[in-house]
Amino acid sequence: VKVKIPFGNKYLDAIFSVPEKKSTYGVILTHGAGGDMNFPHLVSLATYLASHGVLCLRFTCKGLNIAYRTKAFKTVVEYLKLSDDYKLSGVFLAGRSMGSRAAASVIRQLSQDDDDDDDFIQGLVCISYPLHRPKLQSKLRDEDLLSIRCPVLFVSGSADEMCEQQLLEGVASKMRAPKKIHWIDKANHGMAVKGRTTDDVMEEINAHVFSWLRENIELGHK
C-alpha cells in the first residue's frame, strides 16, 4: 500500500507491506545515504517480515544531513502511531547504514522527551551501522547508541570498512541496552560476500532480524 506522509511542506513516499492477518507490531524501515526505499535489501526484508506476520512501513528520505533524516524518521513514527488503519501496540525502528543512525537518533531524542514516556518504540535494528568513516576509526558515532535503553540488534559484515568488528563489540559492551550482534561472515558495508549470492545473504539477514523481533515481542508480552 503506497502512502504519502506529510513532512513540512513536502511529502515522504512510503510503502506498507501488510501481512495477511492483522499485525499488532510493526517495523519502520529506511535506506542508507544512497538509494531509496526500493533498495533491494529493504524490499527483501519488508516482504519477508510481512509474510511472517509483521507489518512493515518503509520510506524514502533523500538527504545526507543526519538531523534532517532524523526529523523525517520521527515524522514517520508519529504518523504510524496516530494511524487509524493500522492500530499498533508498538514498533521497532530499523535502518540500513545512515538510516540506522537516524533511527538511533530518533530513539535517543524521544527517550529524552519528558512528554514521551510511553513504550511505543520497542527496539532498534541496525543493518550495516556506520560506526566510523572508512579509515577513520578514531571518531566513533556511538553517542546515540550509548544512551539508548531499548533492545538493539546489529547486523554487520565482519569485513565492513565502516564498522570494525572489535570497535562495535567495544561499543556494545558499554551500552546499557540489551543488545545482540549478528556478524555476516566476510561481508562488506554493502553486505556483499565473495562466493555468496545477494539472495543468500539476505535470507540470513531476514531470518535473523525476524527471529530477534519475535523474541523481543514475546518478551514484551510477559
TrEMBL record:
Domain of life: Eukaryota
Domain KANL3/Tex30 alpha/beta hydrolase-like intervals: 27-209
Name of the protein: TEX30 protein
Naturally occurring in which organism (per UniProt): Podilymbus podiceps (Pied-billed grebe)
